[in-house]
Amino acid sequence: MLSSLNAKAAILSVVMLAVFLLVWEFGNQPPEAKVNLSEYEMLMGGSEPQARVPNPSEIWTLAVDELSHPFYDKGPNDKGIGLQLLYSIKRVMMGYILAALIAIPVGFLIGMSPLMHKAMNPFIQVLKPISPLAWMPLALFILKDSEVSSVFVIFICSIWPMLVNTAFGVGSVKRDWINIARTHELGAIRTAFLVILPAAAPTILTGMRISIGIAWLVIVAAEMLVGGTGIGYYVWNEWNNLDLTAVVFSILMIGLVGMILDFLLAKATQLVQYQE
Amino acid sequence: MTSYFLDAQDITRTFPSPVKGGESLTVLENVYFGVNEGEFVCIIGHSGCGKSTILNILAGLDTATSGAVIMNGKEISGPSLDRGVVFQNYSLLPWMSALKNITFAVHSRWPSWSREKVLAHSMQYIEMVGLKGTEHRKPSQLSGGMRQRVSIARAFAIEPNLLLMDEPFGALDALTRGIIQEELIKIWEQTNQTVFMITHDVDEAILLADRILLMTNGPHARVAESVVIDIPRHRERTEIIHHPHYYPIRNYLVEFLVKRSKELSDPAALNKTRRSEEQAIGMQRYPPEVNPALETTTEARVVTLNNR
Hints:
The complex is a heterodimer of chains A (276) and B (308).
Chain A (H helix, E strand, L loop, with lengths): L1 H26 L11 H5 L12 H13 L12 H32 L1 H14 L8 H8 L2 H26 L3 H9 L3 H40 L4 H10 L3 H29 L4
Chain B lengths: L5 E10 L9 E11 L4 E5 L6 H9 L6 E6 L2 E2 L7 E4 L11 H12 L5 H14 L15 H14 L4 E5 L7 H18 L3 E4 L3 H7 L2 E5 L7 E6 L8 H4 L5 H20 L1 H14 L8 E2 L11 E3 L4
Parallel strand pairs in B: 3-8, 3-9, 6-7, 7-8, 10-11
Antiparallel strand pairs in B: 1-2, 1-4, 4-5, 9-10, 11-12
């Protein structure tokens, strides 16, 4: 039953995609030239009266071409899409891991101690809603390096969901489980690792999953600002080159990588999930 | 002086009012009782009379507002592996297998033991409760009865000086309950463990206990009497009901729960009976020991007067 449901859903997805692509492809043909082109115009390759969004077939051709050699590097203005994505992923990972290293222990502290919770809550509430890009000028000034600044922006945007979720998960560990730790004289360290961490792990991982999603959203914008390398820069650069085919192609690649990152964190969440 | 192994002296527990300026609630007042080493003692009383509060104080999870509990000559302060606890809701860690739920406790009890020794010791108790073959399952993959078996195995495995059980069979169906009760009797007879157990079930108390403590209704609840169950061991559920002492004891307990627990908690009656009791037992404030099977009138049931 389930597999037939999955099969039906898959067929439906393919049909919807096909219809969408067909409408796009055939609804977006260049207008027929009303007059014969002059010799000059022929020489120039024939000009269209208006710029168009590229057709799926053009994007497909570009995608096949780009993905057949994704890691080439012909100088700052011409790098393979795979290379650009790797730059972005590297920045995201650096900022994200740094954020996790700080957010999880601090979240633990806040979750365990009502005093720390009350003391730190005002700061968290003020800092959390700030758009991460608003930090960019300050980061550029203080850190004096665009690369480090974009890592910092990733750090600052991915720290909050992890911090808040860790604090919540740790704070809402069942009283019964804490009592098990107490009646078995587990001590602070063993209680933290044997009881609280596994109990809060699904909530912490949920926070990490939200964070990676936000980090991937933000890196594109950050790289558009700081430039140089990365998928965000790539999109903006192709826009400046007026290569809309490449823009659409890179948009799709951003979605694909984001999906993979989310999938990995979802799998990790499953690993620590427990059933009561 | 008394020489009880576990000695609760004048325990009072008052909970502050949840509303600021409201009246505080005194759940327990002047609770005295004692438990001897190797004894199986059940405590019964109505819901809300503070049975679980007593157990939490004994476990060290809660602290008495005044009074003290002495175990083995030392005052109880805070939780300890000397006292094992079995709760009604099993209290297993759901991310650990049944075996791991036991080994972590055994490791805590004897940190110097090797991994193999911890494992062998834990497996011995897994086998004792008949769970061999299912030890690698998570609690969610076990039935309620099996989970409670794991919890019991863990409590026995740490070989505590005192085993505390808070309505351990309350959430189980009647059939499973009967089976685990008999297993508990078997394990208890093998280990000679001192047990203090809360129950709602009069028949369960008679089956398991050497003595049953009766609590008056709360608030201001106290232990009113201590009923001796002199039905010989080894007891079987199907056989003890034919023992001549069974129904006198059962009727006495039911009468207490239905009628006297309320009367005794009435403040006016409380003062009167306490005074008369104190006169009768010479200021002895431990609950009088009663054997309903030997005497027939309520007044004459006080057979032994705790004059140790």
